[in-house]
Amino acid sequence: MFHSARIKLTLWYLLIIMTVSMAFSAIIYGFTDREVHRFATMQRQRIQERLESDKFFFGDRPRVMPHIMEISDEELITEVQSRTLISLGIVNGIILLVSGGLGYFLAGKTLRPIGQMLYEQNRFISDASHELKTPLTSLKSAFEVFLRDKKPKLDDAQELIQESLLDVNRLQHLSESLLSLAQFEKPHDPHIMTKVDLKKSIESTIKKVRVLAQKKKIKIISELEDLSTVADQYSLPEIWMILLDNAIKYSPENSTIMVILKKSGNYAEVHISDQGIGIAKKDSEHIFDRFYRADSARSKQKGNGFGLGLAIAKKILEHHSGSISAENNSPKGTTFIVKLPIKKV
């Protein structure tokens, strides 16, 4: 599909370029033809004038230009015309070849973003369909098994409902994540930017996740400077929530999570470090891709998500002209580094 579209676009480029080239060639040929005829006419007039003024050579004989000279002029005009046509043909042939190569190259450059967008869209649909299919299949199977029982018990029904609610919650979480990701993938989606106290924003998120951390006896230590910037006050906490939730999820019990907020030049840097299992080198380049989950112990943790959280965090930061990166700690653990430009109202 992409190759055929590229060929078609190249042909359209060639059609436009060669139409312009042939039009210019026609203008050049017409101008050259007129100039040659004008020059030949002027030459005949000059020769005729010299003949009329030459009394020694002609005497009393009629002073008329020999017919042989008129024939030579016509032959010269015909030769100039044919040479002009050949030259224009060669030039247009060169233009055709060069334009074909350049047109094919430019068509590829033009269609590459569209092809990438279509690939991402198809991959997104495929991955989303797969993620939706898993809990739906689980729900369907559970209900079918329950309905086959001729004498269902109340306890079994309650257990089925509880298990089904887990799958429903999973579907709800997936749909919310997809909507959030789609919102931040809009190229010109307006967001209300206001002054945000980064320290308070992070502290508020830490309070929300502290209950989850306490269940695993994880201690969250924070060192936060008083920094503010202009940002979307509703989307920034989502970044801290995603990163802290991942840190808790992949950290062992009785470990520590470190949260640091500091100024670095014109940027505010947020470091969130855990003492978990880290990220393999082969996975580090893809952890911010949609639906990507590492083929390591991280992907086998209980309650593993859909691989959308870090992709959402990256999109939010791109809307704020910021960035996010990850690096492994020594001897173990991961540090996520968020950079936000410090803007004033």
TrEMBL record:
Domain Histidine kinase, chain residue ranges per copy: 127-344
Catalytic activity: ATP + protein L-histidine = ADP + protein N-phospho-L-histidine
Any Gene Ontology CC annotation: plasma membrane
Pfam families in the cross-refs: HATPase_c, HisKA
GO molecular function, one term: phosphoprotein phosphatase activity
EC number assigned by the record: 2.7.13.3
CDD domains for this protein: HATPase, HisKA
Transmembrane segments: 12-32, 85-107
Organism: Candidatus Roizmanbacteria bacterium CG_4_10_14_0_2_um_filter_39_13
Protein name according to UniProt: histidine kinase
Example GO BP: cellular response to phosphate starvation
Alphabetical keyword list: Kinase, Membrane, Phosphoprotein, Transferase, Transmembrane, Transmembrane helix, Two-component regulatory system
